[in-house]
Structures are given as C-alpha cells and as structure tokens.
Design a protein that fits this description.
By secondary structure, the protein is mainly alpha-helical. The protein folds into two domains: about 5-195 and about 300-330, HUPs (Rossmann fold, 3-Layer(aba) Sandwich); about 215-295, Orthogonal Bundle (Tyrosyl-Transfer RNA Synthetase). Helix content is about 55%, strand content about 5%. The chain has helices at about 20-30, 45, 55-70, 90-100, 100-105, 110-120, 120-130, 130-135, 135-145, 160-175, 215-225, 245-255, 255-270, 275-300, 300-330, and strands at about 5-10, 35-40, 80, 150-155, 185-190. The strands form two sheets. A three-stranded parallel sheet has the order 1-2-3. Strands 4-5 form a two-stranded parallel sheet. Strand 1 (about 5-10), helix 1 (about 20-30) and strand 2 form a beta-alpha-beta unit. Helix 11 runs antiparallel to helix 14 and helix 12 packs across helix 14. The model has no long low-confidence stretch (mean pLDDT about 90). It binds tryptophan. Tryptophan (TRP) binds near residues 140 and 143.
Length: about 325
C-alpha cells in the first residue's frame, strides 16, 4: 500500500526546549516510519510576528535543523527542508489568497488569540496586525497543499487552521473543476502540556524553559528553581503533589509510574524535602535527554547540515513545482519559462 503523505512545520525560534521535543519532535520521529513525511522549518512564519528583528533568524534555522536531526528525524526517511528555500510555496500562497474570502481568515480563532497575545491592549494589537499575519493561515494552507499533504500532525490550537485549509482546498477544486487537492486531516496526538519552571507555559520568550541543549548542570540549576507546594515550607513538612504544580508535573511527564508513586509517598509523609526531590527529578530529566544530547554533540558542522538541507530542499522543490504546474493548468494560467 502506498504511504500517505504527511506534512508538518516548526518555527525557528531558537534552540528548542523540552516542550517542543515532547510535543512535536518525538512524534515526528515516530511518524516518519508510517508515512511519507515532509518536515519543514517555517522561517517565513516567524516573520509574521517578528519581522523587525531578523538578526537571529538564519542561525536559529540551522540550530533547529540540528535539534530536529538529533531528535531522531532521519533525512533519508523524511524530507527535511526550509520553507524559504522553496519560493514556489509563496507563489501558491498568492494564488490561493485570490480565492480565500476575507472573513474566512478573520474568523480563525487561533489567529484571533495570536492577535490578542500581541498586546494586552486590543487597540494596540490592531495596529500590530500586518497583512502577512492575517494571511498566515493561508500560508500554512499553501505549505500543506503544496505537497498535497493528507495528514497534518498538529496541536489542538492549530485545528482551526486546518479547517480553513480544507475550505480552501474544496473551493479550489470546485471553482476549477478538479480533484487536485486532498482535504487534509489533523493527526491529533495527546501530548503533555509542559509547564515552564515558573508554572506558566514553557516558552523561550518567558525565559522559563529547559532546553534540549542545556547541559546537565544548567538543567539541575533550572529544576532547582521550579516552584513546589508552597505549604511545604520545611523539609519534613508533609506536602501534596497536587499543589506541586511544576516539579510534580515534570515527574508525571518524565518519570515512570513506580517513581511517581514513591515521590507521592515521600512527599505526603514528609520523608523528603523539596530540594532533594528536585535533585532527583533533575537526574531523571537529564537521563531522558542524554541520548538526544549526545546525538546533538555529534551533529556535523554547519556546512554538513547545509548539505543535508540542500538535498531536502531540492526534493521538496521538485514536488512543489509539480503541484504548482497542476494548479496553473487547472486555473488555465500560462507556465512561463
Ligand atoms: N503554524 C505552525 C506553528 O505556528 C507551524 C506551521 C506552519 C505548520 N505551517 C505548517 C504546521 C503546516 C503544520 C503544517 O507552529
């Protein structure tokens, strides 16, 4: 049976943290065994909000490529490429934008949330919204349809974008009387939501993340900063894992069941203090990241990464060009040489 085509992208926001690894990359590595996968680094998507400060973008793109490969994504199995290395995607985005109703993008709830996040003050947020940001779900649609992707592994927040993708695909097929585009389906995987060391969502910009490339000492330092049950003030006070919003949550994510049971017992009976408990947690986290950290160290020089990406870029370009040719045929547009 022919494998189904799957596509997913990640923004190059800098060295990735454990939330990215557990939520996205670990899943990508698994999916490459079951599908024909296209994985790309969405550098243009970063520009939809961070268009002013682009100093780090090139370097971040390479660093993310390293994290992806260290996480077990095999460029011989999956096509790994950079969005901006395939400018045909932008051409498809332009053509799709012509058939996309304005109110389809404006009602996208995830986009609305992003707009809100841009500033607490909604009026200020309005000023910050560029044409590019508004078009971002259409760009995402072009990413997916450019390789005729049938499956898209996404988090819940991205499901609304995929509805738009299906609306656009259906409308294109209807207007131009074709069956070119599939209607891509989300692959929802239950991934843990990983809190940052301060209890808010783990995020680079909140400076509360544990990075895949942090070394063991830095990891220990960060884990020791995690908040614990505020009522367990002294070492031998009895505590409650339910009140331990960050450290215990990490035990649930990283430790096996019997360790979780042990921690629960020691905590509730006051047999262990939070500092010791977190030292053990740091060790568990370090252990579970050790393989990928070793792989990350062994990753070849930038020049070799670029060679790997060149191959992926070339393959993606070939596939996207084929799609674009068919799009132009369907739209009765001339294919200029
Ligand atoms: N929108 C995703 C994010 O913000 C990244 C992304 C861009 C993507 N294009 C995609 C994901 C296509 C899946 C499919 O992280």
């Amino acid at each position: 049976m022919q494998k189904k085509r799957l596509l997913s992208g990640i923004r190059p926001t800098g060295a990735l943290h454990v939330g990215h690894y557990l939520g996205v990359l670990r899943n990508w590595a698994k999916l490459q065994e079951e599908h024909e996968c296209f994985y790309f680094i969405a550098d243009w998507h970063t520009l939809t909000t961070k268009y002013k400060d682009t100093n780090e973008l090139q370097n971040n793109t390479i660093e993310v490529a390293k994290d992806i490969i260290a996480s077990g994504i095999n460029p011989n199995k999956a096509t790994l490429y950079i969005q901006s290395a395939v400018p045909e995607v932008a051409e498809l985005h332009l053509l799709l934008s012509m058939i996309t109703y304005q109110n389809w993008v404006e009602r996208d709830p995830t986009l609305k949330d992003m707009v809100k996040l841009l500033a607490e003050d909604e009026n200020k947020a309005k000023e910050e919204v560029t044409y590019g940001l508004l078009g971002y779900p259409v760009l995402m649609t072009a990413d997916i349809l450019s390789v005729l992707g049938e499956y898209v592994p996404v988090g819940r927040d991205q499901v609304a974008h995929l509805e738009l993708t299906r609306d656009i695909a259906r409308r294109f097929n209807y207007i131009y009387k074709t069956e070119l585009f599939p209607e891509p389906q989300p692959l929802l995987t239950e991934t843990p939501s990983v809190p940052g060391i301060d209890g808010r969502k783990m995020s680079k910009s909140l400076n509360n993340d544990i990075k895949v490339i942090d070394n063991e000492e830095i990891t220990i330092k960060k884990v020791l900063q995690m908040i614990t049950d505020p009522k367990k003030a002294r070492k031998n006070d009895a505590g409650s894992p339910e009140e331990c919003q960050v450290a215990y949550k990490h035990y649930e994510i990283f430790a096996d069941k019997s360790t979780q049971e042990l921690v629960r017992k020691e905590c509730t009976t006051g047999a262990i203090g939070c500092v010791d408990c977190k030292k053990r947690l740091a060790e568990i986290i370090n252990n579970s990241l050790s393989q990928i950290r070793i792989k990350r160290e062994l990753i070849p020089k930038d020049s070799e990464i670029l060679e790997i990406l060149d191959i992926g870029n070339g393959h993606a370009k070939k596939i996207v060009k084929q799609t674009l040719d068919k799009v132009k045929d369907a739209m009765k547009l001339k294919k200029w040489n």
